[in-house]
Amino acid sequence: MSYMHERVSYLKGLADGMEVDKETKEGKLLLQIIDILEDFAEEVEEIYDELDDLGDAIVELDDYVDSIDEDLSDLEDEFYEDDFEADEFDSEMDDYEEVECPECGEIIYVDGSLIDKEDEIQCPSCGVIIEFTDDCECCGEEDCECCEDEN
After folding, report:
1. Model-level pTM?
2. CB 3.0–4.6 Å: which of 11, 49, 101, 135 could bond 123 by disulfide?
3. Distance CA 134, CA 138 (A)
4. Would you say 2 and 9 are in contact if contact means Cβ atoms under 8 Å apart?
């Protein structure tokens, strides 16, 4: 911002070179304008210095936040790695059966024990009640041989 100070100094030099009379109304006005411009130049320079300091502080805080984020990520990895493994998830999913809703076609994962007990569930998409029975879909009899022929 020394550029503004240089320009104000140039104006002061012009006023001195022109021998502006401090006693005339015009001379007083011009010299006061130059003094005010010098005050503005100093204030602007201070503001730019403060902005530079704030920029440095922001960069420092950003680095600090990145460091905290990395540390937190490491802690999460250490803490949660023992709690939930992919193999555990797969073994838990083995207990569930994939069922297609006869009404809307939505695929639902149902606990196998519900199917074994011949319970019923409500489809979360369309609300239809899905019953689990061992009855054959084609003849309605339990443990018939006609559906086994299709497999």
Report:
1. 0.40
2. 101
3. 12
4. no
